[in-house]
TrEMBL record:
Keywords: Glycosidase, Hydrolase
Protein name, per record: Cytidine uridine-specific hydrolase
SUPFAM superfamilies reported for this sequence: Nucleoside hydrolase
Keyword NADP: no
InterPro entries, per the entry: Inosine/uridine_hydrolase_dom (IPR001910), IUNH (IPR023186), Ribo_hydro-like (IPR036452)
Residue ranges constituting the Inosine/uridine-preferring nucleoside hydrolase domain according to the UniProt record: 4-293
Length: 305
């Protein structure tokens, strides 16, 4: 089993990613660290607790940062609803939160004692992963890879040229991309390619209590416009680990803009080599959408056991 740490801001697409990652037998999720992002840290923590209660998964939850390294917190509750996971009456929470250490220290505890290299999965702002990298440099040798959903090949979904996860904490994203770690990333456009269309949502609806739960969350995603298809952004990071063959992946240099007056957080994914810098990441530039949808439904099906 591949040991994994997830830094996340649930978030409806995060909820799906967490469900898949914690149910697939190839992965061993050691820690989930909620972070401020789509909604506040308090809410993303509650949402993580709700999900792990719902799925009966006693995974360690250590809350992370309540704001980015240098900038004020942002919010995407317009997309995910006021709670971050609107639409489903989750059962009373039974999972506990461990706030005896920071998220970075919890990551260190796991990575420094793991007998197998650990995968760090970042599906929210990168603040806590950056803090871990900065505070525990000796641990980096035991990181298998950092797998991210974030950045964009072209324009943005948060700024003109910037994607939400990177733009909320550009300095953190920069630390990650200059760390020397092996990085794989699914940018925004790939999330948009891999839309879950209404027929698929209807299939998911039939998948017992899990299907019912996700269908209800989906019906609130982006204010209820799920009929046009839903961007399952964060599930792509999980797919990159579990089903890399679904993607066309290219090694390239990724630069994170931190000083741009209007462009901070933009990811310059230098596919044409304009910057003449060494490769520091592998970027998904295409996904097989039919296979992705099929995989997605199968994985949601697995979460029922
Ligand atoms: C990313 O931003 C968040 O709203 C989603 O959860 C995803 O991680 C997409 O840009
Ligand atoms: Ca997210």
């Amino acid at each position: 089993k591949n040991p994994v740490i997830i830094s996340t801001d649930p978030g409806i697409d995060d909820a799906v990613a967490i469900a898949i990652a914690t149910s697939d037998e190839a992965l061993d999720v050691k820690l989930i660290s909620p972070i401020s992002g789509n909604v506040s840290l308090e809410k993303t923590t509650l949402n993580t607790q709700k999900l792990l209660t719902f799925f009966h998964k006693p995974i360690r939850i250590v809350p992370g940062s309540h704001k980015p390294l240098l900038r004020p917190a942002k919010d995407a509750s317009g997309v995910h609803g006021k709670t971050g996971m609107d639409g489903y009456p989750f059962p009373e929470i039974t999972t506990k939160v461990d706030d005896s250490v920071t998220a970075a220290t919890a990551m260190h505890e796991i990575v420094s004692t793991s007998d197998q290299p650990v995968t760090l999965m970042g599906i929210g702002p990168l603040t806590d992963i950056a803090l871990f990298i900065h505070q525990y440099p000796d641990d980096l040798a035991n990181i298998k890879e950092v797998v991210l959903m974030g950045g964009s090949l072209g324009r943005g979904n948060f700024g003109v040229l910037s994607e939400f996860n990177f733009a909320t904490d550009p300095e953190a994203a920069k630390i990650v991309f200059t760390s020397g770690l092996t990085i794989r990333v699914a940018p925004m456009e790939i999330g948009r390619q891999a839309k879950i269309m209404p027929t698929t949502s209807e299939k998911i609806k039939t998948l017992g209590r899990v299907g019912d739960m996700f269908y209800k969350l989906f019906s609130k995603y982006r204010g209820g416009s799920f009929k046009k298809g839903l961007n399952m952004y964060d599930a792509l990071a999980v797919a990159l680990v579990l089903k890399p063959e679904l993607f066309e992946q290219v090694k390239t240099h990724v630069e994170i803009e931190t000083t741009g007056r209007y462009t901070a957080g933009a990811s310059l994914i230098d596919l044409k080599g304009y910057l003449d810098m060494p490769d520091n990441a592998t970027v998904a530039v295409n996904v097989d959408t039919d296979k992705f949808e099929k995989w997605f439904v199968e994985e949601i099906g697995k979460t029922m056991s």
